[in-house]
Write a structure and sequence with these properties.
about 200 residues, alpha/beta, Dihydrofolate Reductase, subunit A, 4 helices, about 25% helix
Length: about 200
Amino acid sequence: MTRIIADISVSLDGFVTGPDPGPDNGLGTGGEALHTWAFSDDPDDRRVLREATACSGAVVLGRRLFDVVDGPKGWNDNSGYGAGEVGKPAFVVVTSSPPESVRLTDLDWTFVTTGLPDAVAAARSRAEAASSHRGEDLDVVLMGGGAMIGSALDAGLVDVLSLHLAPVVLGSGTPLFTGGAPRTLVQRSVTSTSTTTHLTYDVL
């Protein structure tokens, strides 16, 4: 069964970027510390990243994040979705207007202009098709940014919340939670490594 998984790294004080994020500074000032785990040699970090990448049938992201990863300082042949894993699922971008051109033309991009629920539905269809082709269950991963994941949680679109809690206090930046609708979570797993704490919750 295809699940909708919100997967994001977050600081101890609840931010998914540092201050002043932008196309040339995607994670904001100091925000690189959030993703130290994705490039570490810790075997548990590598396993978490490898398993998450392997089960991704389609990935949803917002336009701001797309502009970062498709920008000149974004993904390349050595570092893409899943960091060193460089996975290539289908990518669905929620946007009010598609870009005029795409740098990463070797990736499968779909641009949805009719809102987040439609983008998630399109990604689910792609993930289900990939599941059928590969003969295994694949998921839809909501990779961010933070506002998109918050909106998905508020809309009841998320089945699983996967947080990578970095041991850093950023002080300000882009918050993951901004006082949306209450949600009950059931903790399913906790993996502590030298760089982060990986937390998985079912969203009820």
